[in-house]
Amino acid sequence: MRRQIFIFVLVLCTTLTGCSLGEGTETTSEESSQQTMLNATSTAEEDLLLIHGIRLGDSKEKVVEKLGYPQSKGKVIETKNNDTATSYKYGELTFGILNDSVASIETEDREYKTASGIGIGSTYIELMNTYEHMDPRESEGREFVYITEQDRFLSFVMGSDERIEQISYGYQSVFEEFSGITFAELDSNSRQVDVSKTQANSLIEAVYLNDIEAVERLLAEGADPDTTFSSMAEGIEPSDRISVLWYSIYKEYYEIITLLEKHGAKQIKDVQEVRLRGHADEALQNHDLEKMKRLLETGLDPNGYIGFGQWEETYMSYSSSRNDQEMVDLLLSYGANR
Questions:
Q1: pLDDT at position 14 over 70
Q2: What's the confidence (pLDDT) of residue 7?
Q3: Residue 37: closest CA among 191, 165, 148, 175
Q4: Where are the beta strands (DSSP E) in the chain?
Q5: Average pLDDT value for residue range 149-177
Q6: Which long-range CB contacts under 8 A does 316-323 form with residues at least 24 apart?
Q7: Is residue 157 part of a domain?
Q8: Of the residues 73, 128, 145, 196, which has the fewest C-beta atoms closer than 10 A?
Q9: In a domain, 156, yes or no
C-alpha cells in the first residue's frame, strides 16, 4: 500500500509542472478560490527554493520577464474549483502556473540548488544532514523524500544510487487539490527519518561492499567511525558488538581501515588475532588445507571459532558438520579437541 501511494505521488508531483500534453492557449478564471493564497507575501529568506529571483506566488509575467517566453507550455487544464493551470518549461526547469501565478517549481537541472545548497546529484546523507531540523519524511524505499513548512512542501525524487534526481517545491493545498491525497495521508504512509541511524546503515553497507569512496564521503559527512557492524549475509547481529573497524580488519580492507582510524575510530586489541580469524574462516569455507596448515603453524588456535554470536561454532564442529574429514584430521593433528 505504501509503495503504491508513493508511486502515485511521484507522478502527481509533476501535475502542475509536467503537463506538457500539447500546446494550449492560456485562459483566466474570474472566480478564483486560490487567489489570496497565491499572493507573494514571503521574503527570500523564507523561501526553500528561489530560482532567478522567482518564488511561489509570483506572477507569470515575472517569470517571462526574468527568463523570456517559455520553450514550451503545458496544456491548460481546469480544476474542480474552476481554477486554471498550465506549466512554463525552460529546459529542465518548470514552473507550474495556477490562476496566472507560480504555484510550483520543479527542476532536474544541476545548476539550481535549494536555499540550503542542496541540488541535483546531492547525496541522500547530504540531504538528511541539511534538513534534519525540519523533520524530513521518506517513503519506505527512499524513492521520495519530503519536508513541509506551513502550507509549503519541498520534495526530492531519489535515484537508485541515493542521489537526488528531481526537486519540487509547491503549496501543500494545491498538491492536495490536484492529487486528491492529503499530506496527513502521506505522513501516515511514510516514516520520519532518523539521521544518525541512516548514516550508520549507509556506512555499514559501504564497509560491507568495500566501497572506499562511499566510506570516505560518509565519514566526511559525520558518520560515526565506531558504528556497530551488522549483516544478515555474514550472520553478524548488533548484539555481537562488532565495529566497522573490526570487520574491516577481519576482511583486510586496508584503505577503509586507514579512513576509519583517521576519523578517530577506537583501536582494536589483538589486531593480528582478528586477521588470523578472517583467514581461518576463509580457509575453512573454501576447504583450503594448505592455507589452514600455514595459519596453524603461525599460531592459530585449532580450537578457535568460526561465525558470530548465535551462529558461532568451533572449527572442528564446522568441519565435521560438513563432512570435511581432511580438515578434521588436520585440526586434530594440531591439538584440536574432539
A1: no
A2: 39
A3: 175
A4: 72-73, 77-78, 84-90, 93-98, 101-107, 137-138, 144-149, 152-158, 164-171, 191-192, 228-229, 242-243, 305-306, 313-314
A5: 90
A6: 318/284, 319/284
A7: yes
A8: 196
A9: yes
